[in-house]
Design a protein that fits this description.
The complex is a heterodimer of chains A (about 400) and B (about 450). Chain A has a single domain, classed as Luciferase-like domain (TIM Barrel), CATH 3.20.20.30. Chain A is built from 11 helices and 13 strands. Chain B is of the alpha/beta class and about 450 residues long. Helices cover about 35% and strands about 15% of the residues of chain B. In chain B, the strands form 5 sheets. Chain B has an 8-stranded parallel beta barrel with strand order 1-2-5-6-11-12-13-17, surrounded by 5 helices. In chain B, strands 4-3-15 form a 3-stranded antiparallel β-sheet. Chain B has a two-stranded antiparallel ribbon with strand order 7-8. In chain B, strand 3 and strand 4 form a beta hairpin. Chain B is globular, with a radius of gyration of 23 Å. The chains are: A alpha/beta (about 400), B alpha/beta (about 450). At the A-B interface, helix 2, helix 3, helix 4, strand 6 and strand 8 of A face strand 4, helix 2, helix 3, strand 8 and strand 10 of B.
Chain lengths: ~400, ~450
């Protein structure tokens, strides 16, 4: 499946504001006043590209950031407000040459037709480096921003009603990805013919109605945007339990998971692979990346002290869905190699403080992995799929000659 | 003569998916590769144009139940390509056509506010409406909107988006690292909108962009469209590019502003205009004839006749005489996804008139379509075209033009190189950008300057 040597692991960075720690914006390197400028994002992505990373993801949401799950908070001591992730990615694309750009898109209240052409266009403006990370939202306040449906408030995640509601949103997301993918294929690669003799710009037999009909929407197609350079831009999703594991298995090229040790990683990988087989896609390549929040310093005590300082500023110890690592780049390299042996093909690192930990990834971790023969020393492909060892897929609608 | 010279506004419309665009010319490049958009935008910026303009249609056109294949087909997503163009230009305004029927205000406002930040205040929104179930087949709600409600939805959509843009004042982010205060206002972005089309509330999550709100364009020409523009648009993308019609439209629309408490200079009139340039006027005329012939192939001529006849005319020879059969007056079923068909309100009369014209001039179907089709707006030497444009604007037939070249992506180059310097010599077009935002280029005030906003006591 991979054109890169199997000894190599893949690395992505998840960009979120000034970093994943809620007090990150208070660090001197943080540039919190620049968050709404193109220059801020251009600098971060340039740093990631300097480190030869496979791609960056960019977080997004259809409501304000909040420390509370089901509703907005009224905190004034954390970063609030953000820019649309697809547009950030597109704004950065012409300024970079190799790195993949994977914005978050929320499936729950948006139109698959719009998102399909937006990501196809991101693929055009980046000449083959686009992907998306699909997300659902179960927040009632975000549903109220659209006013098209009501989403009941979830108080207990493990209640049967909550699980049904969430499962339904993930089913919708799977349909959404199916529509997005069909629309990418709704033009065959050689549909544009410019045949002056007959006056035809396209061969319309090579454009296809997708005729998707599902419980949540029906979409006729074809797309207004021709098939993007990669054919199918990369589809990714973050998954913490069985229902989203199934979305990854059914719909994605790459899943992010959050195991806390190698044993958990093995179990998660086995479960997703089993779902992949059940979905009839066992033969299709699927990357499974481990997500880690990272605090990196040259000395482990320094990293621990920085974490304490940030936690003190935040007023509580930082915990999230993903494990938090603090230590040296060499220690992190040890951990990544151990987790990789459990079946993960790469990692998406979430810098606790973007301005500090991203350069420690690119200038500390990456050289360490390169010394171990575990990471690329130059970009070896021109597209994001290429960097991940994924072929350009055949078009599902093209008739086999 | 005492009246001061008006400054002309110029914009560049990326060639569209209709037969104005000549794809068969050897010079015609890609309509989808980003490099074409870069070339086009950088030419417009080099010529100090006010902005670049992108149209959008959300379903591929069909004729006789089949995807229409004779014109350019396919284009990028508007927001995404404009955001990328913000990276390769510095001052050029970025105007996108976004439909108010098949979008939601929260999402569109997020996208425009984001584009405004990412471009340093260069975003503009051409608000268009549609209602047809044909386009709706690509969206969650299908064809949900009765035709007569499309402007009421558009008006409410724009009002709601403005409430979202205004839900942040622009001074909430203090980011005081020492004190630990990021936001001055815990409720920044709070909004409530209850109306016929939208019933939404919550918190908008994109802080106010450099322009406050994007510049608003309107393109519809009906009475309702004109009222919509007068009530809330900053500019109109109009279709009146002849002097008399332009002056009539200009007077009509500017006259509607007072009842909304607005001044005439708060709404710019910018008609679409095509052009063909030559070293001499005669050479330009000759070239223009050639271009019109390229724009109307035999196959295109037959299809064009079908808009009027509302029948399959594929059996007719484009180089032969017009059909003797009359148009089908039933519901229009031939062409879908384009506005053109509504231009022929009395098909029987049009058919009769065209038969008479063809007979009198000995025209074939193709000759007729070429000769009755729109002639290019400006045909001539650079000096003649510069003079015509200037006269048109000084005579209050418009405030400038949105130029539509017929070749992608190089069709603007000759205009930039030859006509723009002459307009600059006449003192009616900028030689350098004076400001950084699109509002600056268009002479439009920041919304906060027009209507000082009340700040909640803090």
């Amino acid at each position: 499946m991979s054109s890169t040597p199997p000894a190599h692991l893949h690395l992505a960075v998840a960009l979120e504001g000034t970093g994943w720690h809620p007090a990150s914006w208070r660090e001197p390197v943080a540039r919190p006043r620049d968050l709404l400028t193109a220059g801020y994002w251009a600098d971060l992505v340039a740093e990631a590209e300097r480190g030869l990373l496979d791609f960056v993801t960019i977080e997004d949401g259809l409501g304000p950031q909040s420390s509370l799950f089901p509703e907005p908070d009224e905190r004034t001591d954390q970063v609030r407000g953000r820019l649309d992730a697809v547009l950030i990615a597109s704004r950065i694309a012409p300024l970079t040459r190799h790195i993949g750009l994977v914005p978050t898109v929320v499936a729950t209240h948006t139109e698959p037709f719009h998102i399909s052409k937006a990501i196809a266009t991101l693929d055009y403006v980046s000449t083959g480096r686009a992907g998306l990370r699909v997300q659902i939202t179960a927040r009632p306040n975000e549903a109220a921003h659209f006013g098209r449906r009501t989403i009941p408030r979830i108080d207990a995640y493990d209640s049967p009603a909550a699980q049904d509601a969430v499962a339904d949103l993930f089913d919708e997301a799977a349909d959404y990805v199916e529509v997005v993918r069909r629309l990418w294929d709704s033009w065959e690669d050689d549909a544009e013919i410019r045949d002056v003799a007959t006056g035809r710009f396209i061969d319309r037999d090579k454009l296809h109605y997708i005729d998707f009909e599902g419980r949540h929407f029906s979409v006729r197609g074809p797309s207004i945007t021709p098939r993007p350079p990669q054919g199918q831009p990369l589809v990714t999703a973050l998954a913490h339990h069985t229902v989203p594991f199934r979305l990854v298995a059914r719909a994605a090229d790459l899943g992010y998971v959050t195991p806390h040790d190698a044993e958990q990683a093995r179990a998660v990988v086995a479960e997703i692979r089993a779902e992949r087989t059940a979905a009839g896609r066992a033969e299709e390549p699927l990357h499974i990346f481990g997500d880690l929040v990272v605090l990196l310093d040259d000395d482990p005590a320094q990293a621990a002290a920085r974490r304490d300082r940030l936690d003190t500023l935040a007023g509580h110890p930082y915990t999230g869905d993903a494990p938090v690592f603090s230590g040296t780049p060499a220690q992190l390299a040890d951990l990544l190699e151990e987790l990789r042996s459990a079946g993960l093909s790469g990692f998406r690192l979430r810098p606790a403080v973007a301005g500090h930990d991203l350069p420690r990834i690119t200038r500390g971790l990456v050289p360490e992995l390169q010394r171990r023969g575990a990471f690329r020393t130059a970009y070896e492909a021109g597209t994001l799929r290429g960097l991940l060892g994924l072929e350009r897929p055949a078009n599902r609608y093209a008739s086999v000659a | 003569m005492s009246k001061p010279l008006k400054q002309i506004h110029l914009a560049a419309h990326f060639p569209g998916v209709n037969n104005t665009t000549v794809w068969s010319d050897p010079k015609a490049g890609s309509h989808i590769e980003f490099s074409s958009f870069v070339h086009f935008a950088q030419t417009a910026e080099r010529a100090k144009f006010d902005f670049l303009f992108l149209a959008e249609g959300l379903r591929l056109r069909e004729q006789d139940g089949k995807i229409y294949d004779l014109d350019v087909v396919g284009r990028p997503d508007t927001f995404t390509v404009l955001a990328a163009l913000a990276a390769v230009t510095d001052r050029l305004g970025l105007t996108g056509t976004i439909n108010s029927t098949f979008n939601e205000p929260y999402e569109v406002a997020r996208q425009f506010a984001s584009l405004d930040h990412l471009s340093g205040g260069r975003s503009a929104w051409n608000v268009v409406t549609s209602w047809d179930a044909f386009t709706g087949e690509n969206f969650r709600r299908g064809g949900f909107l009765p035709q007569q409600e499309r402007y009421s939805r558009a008006r409410e959509f724009l009002a709601t988006a403005n409430e979202l843009f205004d839900s942040w004042h622009g001074d909430e982010i203090v980011a005081d690292q020492a004190a630990g205060t990021f936001l001055r206002d815990a409720k920044a972005g709070a909004f409530v909108h209850r109306g016929q089309h939208f019933d939404i509330h919550g918190r908008f999550n994109v802080p106010r962009g450099p322009q406050g709100r994007p510049v608003i364009f309107q393109a519809g020409d009906s009475d309702e469209g004109r009222e919509f523009a007068a009530s809330g648009a900053d500019a109109i993308f109009s279709r009146y590019s002849t002097l008399e019609a332009g002056q009539a439209f200009y007077t009509d629309v500017k006259g509607r502003l007072a009842k909304y408490g607005r001044r005439p200079d708060q709404l710019l009139i910018l008609p679409a205009a095509t052009f063909v340039l030559g070293d001499t006027d005669a050479e330009a005329e000759e070239l223009a004839r050639e271009v019109r012939r390229q724009q109307v192939s035999g196959a295109t001529a037959i299809k064009h006749l079908e808009f009027v006849w509302n029948r399959d005319l594929s059996a007719y020879d484009p180089d032969g005489p017009l059909p003797e059969i009359d148009p089908d007056l039933g519901e229009h079923h031939i062409a879908r996804g384009r506005a053109q068909v509504r231009m022929y309100r009395d098909p029987l009369a049009t058919a009769r008139e065209w038969r008479e014209l063809a007979a009198a001039n000995n025209w074939s179907i193709r000759d007729l379509v070429i000769n009755t089709g729109n002639r290019q707006t400006f045909v001539g030497s650079p000096a003649a075209v510069a003079r015509t444009i200037d006269d048109f604007v000084q005579a209050d037939a418009s405030d400038g033009f949105i130029l539509v070249p017929h070749i992608t992506p190089g069709g603007l180059d000759v205009f930039a190189d030859t006509v723009v310097p002459l307009l600059q010599e006449r003192g009616v077009f900028r030689t350098e950008y004076e400001g950084t935002t699109l509002r600056d280029h268009l002479g439009l005030a920041h919304p906060d300057a027009e209507a000082p906003r009340e700040r909640a006591a803090s």
